[in-house]
Design brief:
Blueprint (H helix, E strand, L loop, with lengths): L19 E10 L3 E7 L11 H6 L6 E9 L3 E6 L12 H19 L3 E6 L9 E4 L4 H11 L3 H4 L1 H6 L8 H12 L5 E6 L8 H7 L4 E8 L1 H4 L6 E6 L6 E6 L1 H23 L6 E4 L4 H12 L1
Parallel strand pairs: 4-5, 4-7, 7-8, 8-11
Antiparallel strand pairs: 1-3, 2-3, 5-6, 9-10
Helix pairs in contact: 2-3, 6-7
């Protein structure tokens, strides 16, 4: 994987902030985007006097040009590290997520944004928390943490030994804990997951992040999207629950497989559309150019 991958992202709305950056700001200050003329008395900066505009005023007052400044926005990658993210025919979805956060760190540093990471499975993963910082190596740090992170079963051996027959908590519970930390913050949130968990709680979680600009990054592996092309007996394992199921692959099953994938994709698109959000679907290796096109379409 290319560790120097980069994608271009911009917010489609004006944002407030004091740190200079690459996003369109809502406050006036040093910048190239002209906002308005105002009196020199209100903004005493003789360097920005507009002589032509001053001559045309009826009051014959000195006018200065004020501009809107470009600001930095905190960026947070919220990454699903549950068991299903460890599936993949070539590279696992967790490795694809690591490639994404590596590219995100590089891209955020280039644009001037602080970037950090929060992770979850059945609960918030404190061992993978990275506070938002503007530093060159943030992407590599976050990617290394994801590639080396331990599965939930190894962290909670005591819990599983006391309840051997209980199923691991759903990732939506961990996402709820993580979303609470970002509630009320004006930031850019990349929600990275395969979303192979119950989506009933997702609308309430999105309501928690009303002040943030959320970009869902849906990571699917081609092996789970495209069924095997040959007919025959197959044994399938649910990576979340460990349950095994056997089935005979045939044309009718293959058709239902494609239908289920299309239905899930439509379900996700509809759910996010109700909150004014369009998800980014990524199959296979992380496609930085496709994500750049996604933001270009959003800001056009």
């Amino acid at each position: 994987m290319n560790t120097l991958a980069e994608f271009q992202y911009r917010l489609p709305v004006r944002v407030s902030g004091a740190r200079p950056g690459g996003h369109r700001g809502s406050s006036v200050g040093i910048g190239q985007e002209f906002a308005a003329h105002t009196r020199l008395f209100d903004h005493p900066d003789p360097r920005r006097i507009d002589v032509r505009a001053s001559v045309r005023t009826v009051q014959r007052e000195w006018l200065v040009r004020v501009h809107r400044q470009r600001v930095a926005v905190p960026v947070h990658a919220v990454v699903d590290v549950s068991a299903s993210m460890r599936f993949g025919a070539g590279s696992t979805k967790l490795e694809v997520a690591a490639a994404f956060v590596d590219a995100l760190g590089h891209s955020a540093f280039r644009i001037g944004d602080p970037v950090g990471m929060l992770a979850f499975d059945g609960e918030a993963r404190e061992d993978l928390f990275v506070p938002a910082r503007h530093a060159r190596g943030m992407g590599s740090l976050m990617a290394e943490l994801l590639r080396d992170c331990a599965p939930d079963q190894t962290r909670s051996s005591s819990r599983s030994s006391s309840r051997p027959s209980s199923r691991a908590p759903s990732p939506d519970r961990g996402l709820r804990d993580v979303a609470t930390r970002l509630a009320g913050r004006a930031c850019l949130v990349f929600l990275v997951s395969d979303f192979h968990w119950p989506l009933a709680a997702l609308p309430a979680l999105l309501d928690t992040l009303t002040h943030a600009w959320v970009v869902p990054v849906v990571l699917w592996d081609r092996a789970e999207v495209e069924p095997p092309s040959h007919n025959g007996w197959m044994s399938l394992v649910d990576v979340e629950s460990g349950e095994m199921r056997s089935m005979w692959m045939r044309d009718s099953v293959r058709a239902r497989w494609h239908s289920a994938v299309a239905e899930r994709r439509a379900q996700l698109a509809t759910l996010f559309a109700r909150h004014g959000i369009r998800p980014f679907f990524n199959q296979g290796a992380f496609d930085a150019e496709a994500l750049s096109r996604y933001f270009l379409e959003m800001t056009a």
